[in-house]
Amino acid sequence: MTARVGVVVFPGTNCELDVVWAVEELGADAELLWHGDRTVHGVDAVVIPGGFAHGDYLRTGAIARFSPVMDAVAEHAAAGGPVVGICNGFQVLTEAGLLPGALQKNTGLTFVCDTVELEVVSTRSVLTSQATVGAVLRVPINHFEGNFVCDDATLRRLHDEDRIVVRYVRNPNGSLDDIAGVSNEAGNVVGLMPHPERASSLLLGSADGVVLLESMLAAARSRAAAAV
Amino acid sequence: MRFAVRIDVTHLPGVLDPQGATVERALPALGYDNVADVSIAKTIRLAIDAASESEARAQVDDMCRRLLANPVIERYTVEIDHDVPA
After folding, report:
1. Among residues 6-25 of chain B, which lie with CB inside 8 Å of chain A?
2. What is the residue range of A112's domain?
3. Which residues pair with A183 in a beta bridge?
């Protein structure tokens, strides 16, 4: 069964077509979801892609969380549907309270645009179910506000509940505990600063992101099959 | 009545303020070796129509919690000026 992936577009989102391309290359259907719609149109997985939703005004993701589509995204997530936030999408998910913590300005105030090494920490999430714990993936990052922070109690919970999904091998932005991506308790909502869609073909310099996207598509397909 | 409101949003104690830290490191280069605790905050000003100051304050508190500040990394203070001309 072909999975349908919805890619949310806010004013200022700019990575949506990269995600659509990567997902379609892997054999799934992709459609854009406008932020002003109150529905995710029954897709099997939702991706909130990178960019500058609502201009990043006030704080990254702060305005986007009030876009009408976000209620539908929260319902999809509550029903166990896969939700993946990439870069700005991660920031939106933390602001929306679907993921813990916050992303603030990088240490040293540098915008970082680089390909980094990520270590897979947990395979319990919809983004890493087909990966191997300890595997190192080369995936691009491209952000100014990727410095993950949360309080001590939250960090302990993330450890204890196996919710740290990927870590930086060499910390590029000051992120607490080298965290590059986390999941919710159930593992179906994941946010990460690196861009797997930009590492989805050797032509792009790395295909290491494919295992992440394939994991998400597997979760989407099993959801599609269960809905029939 | 119209109230003039000033909201200061600052980092929670213990949360790194990367902008403040960078400015703190830059000041000694200008010869200011005696500076500590630099923090960069956000000021939001707005006018609000409400029946009383306490009603205005309650609404501004609500705005801060829901949108203007992120409680994970920030705290805020609110100052309200009485009954300004509309």
Report:
1. 15-16, 18-19, 21-22
2. 4-227
3. A190
Give B20-72 pLDDT, tens digit per residue. 998 999 999 999 999 999 999 999 999 999 999 999 999 999 999 999 999 99
Pairing mode, strands A45-48 and B2-11: unpaired
CA distance B44 to chain A (A): 10
Is the predicted ipTM greater than 0.85, yes or no? no
Give me the number of domains chain A comprises.
1
Q: Work out the angle between the directed axes of helices A210-227 and A16-25 (0-180°, nearest 10).
A: 80
Domain ranges of chain B: 2-84
Rounded to whole angstroms, the Cα distance separating A219 from A26 reads 14
Name the residue among A62, A100, A105 with its Cβ closest to that of B19: A105
The CATH number of domain B2-84, selected from 3.30.1280.10, 3.40.50.720, 3.40.50.300, 3.40.50.850: 3.30.1280.10
The string of pLDDT tens digits covering residues A163-184 is: 999 999 999 999 999 999 999 9
Which contiguous run of DSSP H or E holds residue B5?
strand B2-11
pTM passes above 0.90: yes
Q: Measured between alpha carbons, how far is A140 from A194 in angstroms, rounded to an integer? A: 6
